[in-house]
Specification:
The structure is a single chain. Helices cover 40% and strands 19% of the residues. It is of the alpha/beta class. It is globular, with a radius of gyration of 19 Å. It is built from 11 helices and 9 strands. Helix 7 crosses helix 8 and helix 10 packs antiparallel against helix 11.
Length: 280
């Protein structure tokens, strides 16, 4: 595995590989890698000739300074996992490589998508996500981009970014299914910060989403949302939302005939967790 720390050096190397006719797959991450990230590397390796992974903890997407301060950094184990997974290139930049002097902050027209769910509770978050992914795509110029379904709204945002920036034809977006622990908890870097007691409670989010899917034919959508919220609160969670939405655009739905997804965000202690599950 080749490690690049300079954006221009990586870009030059990528151009040489593309000139040889090789296809580039890209997996952007913030490190603290787990099997969910590795599944993205594996998906890229299955279709691309060269797989690039980036590790960069992007400050512009954190609306909570404490969350940024405590985000786990596990670079040594990350390197071991990428080596074992067969990653070809790691981009490990400092902030000045991503946001060099003269970098102009853009505004991305995301419409309603950044005002609902995560957008409502994390104002500015998706602008920061777009800013860093836009810059990384400029550097890597991949044929394929791989993201995890756990961050479903982020996947929708990045799809819109590809359309907005005219990259949709040159870079395909591939959404890889969520990888879960044996008890159903969606793998997340933030899981490392859970205490033993919090970790034991954390699978309740997946459990209530699964119950929504099971009970969908029997009850109204508002009833199912409220019952799930109450169950989480009774188990000690602080709930931002439990929402049943159209899978296509994550807006609210009044019926059960179209594809639906249940999404939840809830905190146990100081750790905020998100998850989603396709319903029908």
């Amino acid at each position: 595995m080749i490690i690049f720390k300079k954006a221009d050096q990586l870009s030059h190397h990528i151009v040489l590989q593309k000139d040889k006719g090789l296809r580039i797959g890209f997996v952007p991450t913030m490190g603290a890698l787990h099997q969910g990230h590795i599944s993205l590397i594996e998906a890229s390796r299955a279709t691309a000739d060269i797989t690039v992974c980036s590790i960069f903890i992007n400050p512009t997407q954190f609306n909570n300074p404490e969350d940024l301060k405590h985000y786990p950094v596990t670079i040594e184990s990350d390197l071991d996992k990428l080596h074992a997974a067969g990653c070809d290139i790691l981009f490990l930049p400092e902030a000045a490589e991503i946001y060099p002097p003269g970098h102009i902050k853009k505004h991305y027209s995301l419409g309603r998508l950044e005002t609902i769910l995560e957008g409502r509770f994390r104002p500015g978050h998706f602008q920061g996500v777009c800013e860093v992914v836009d810059r990384l795509l400029d550097i890597v110029q991949p044929h394929s981009l791989f993201l995890g379904q756990k961050d479903l709204q982020q996947c929708r945002v990045i799809k819109q970014l590809l359309d907005l920036t005219g990259r949709a034809e040159s870079t395909s977006l591939n959404i890889v299914p969520t990888v879960r622990e044996a008890d159903g908890l969606a793998m997340s870097s933030r899981n490392l910060r859970l205490s033993e007691e919090e970790r034991a409670k954390a699978p309740a989010i997946f459990q209530v989403l699964s119950r929504i899917r099971q009970e969908l034919p029997k009850h109204s959508l508002p009833f199912l949302e409220q019952a799930a919220r109450q169950e989480l609160e009774q188990k000690g969670f602080s709930v931002d939302y439990v929402s049943i939405a159209r899978a296509s655009d994550l807006t609210g739905s009044n019926g059960k005939e179209e594809p639906l997804v249940a999404l939840a965000a809830a905190s146990i202690g100081s750790i905020r967790l998100i998850d989603n599950l396709a319903l029908n």
